[in-house]
Amino acid sequence: MKYCLVSVPLEAVDSDEPLDALKGIIGDNGTVLNFAVPDFKIGTLDALVQQADDLGKLDTNCEGLVAKVADSLKSLLDDSDKVEEQKLVNDKPTDNYLRTFNWNKVRYRADKPIAELIDTLQKELVTVDSDVKGKLNQYNQVKTNLATLQRKQTGNLTTKSLTPIVDPSLLIQDSEYLETHLIVVPANLKKDF
Fold first, then answer.
1. Is residue 63 part of a domain?
2. Cα-flanking dihedrals φ and ψ of residue 26, to 5°?
3. According to DSSP H, which parts of 39-102 are helical?
4. Which of 20, 63, 114, 171 is most buried per CB count within 10 Å?
5. How buried is 29 (Cβ within 10 angstroms: 0-12 exposed, 13-18 middle, 19+ buried)?
6. Structural domain contains residue 166
């Protein structure tokens, strides 16, 4: 599913209901919803041009991070239905989130300069990227540990733990002069041993 966010100044529409005018233009080709965004504290034209460039870079970085998370999910889950279940925004499916979008006025206060909001978003992006990398590293470490344990459980006797095979009562214990050493000899080398 594709989404297109269109910003239209209310003065450009000749109708009392701008959404109805847009619905008439789009027809059956999509759904028109109000996507309420607060009025921001706007500075100079030069500052706005710089902030537009900064937002473009931030958008590219966000897109890259989302693609990295999506690729990680695909490689971890190996099932497209499970991947789709995990594609959530604030614990909501993407379509539902966009249809019920409300600006977070506490976290992203509109009375702050746009440059400050961009800085906040950039810091959050870095934090999310670090969290994703940390979680992937943790997952890979656990996966490696599990593979090592499985290899010890199912491998040959040179790597496998002998604890479930050898009865502890057969071993010499608590002796000052004797030690028990277990030796694994392949069956084809039994005569040589």
1. yes
2. -80, -35
3. 45-77, 80-86, 94-99
4. 114
5. exposed
6. no
Residue 160 C-beta-side C-alpha neighbours within 13 Å: 12
| pLDDT computed for residue 128 by the predictor | 94
CA 10, 12, 16, 19 dihedral sign is negative
Task: Say how far apart CA 104 and CA 117 lie, in whole Å.
Answer: 12
67 vs 189: CA distance, rounded Å:
54
- How far apart, in whole angstroms, are the C-alpha atoms of residue 117 and residue 55? 10
pLDDT digits (tens, 9 = 90+) for 143-176: 999 988 887 777 677 667 677 778 888 888 888 8
Write the pLDDT tens digit of every residue in 102-120: 888 888 988 899 999 999 9
Residue 66 in domain: yes
- For 120-150, write each residue's pLDDT tens digit: 999 999 999 999 999 999 999 999 999 888 8
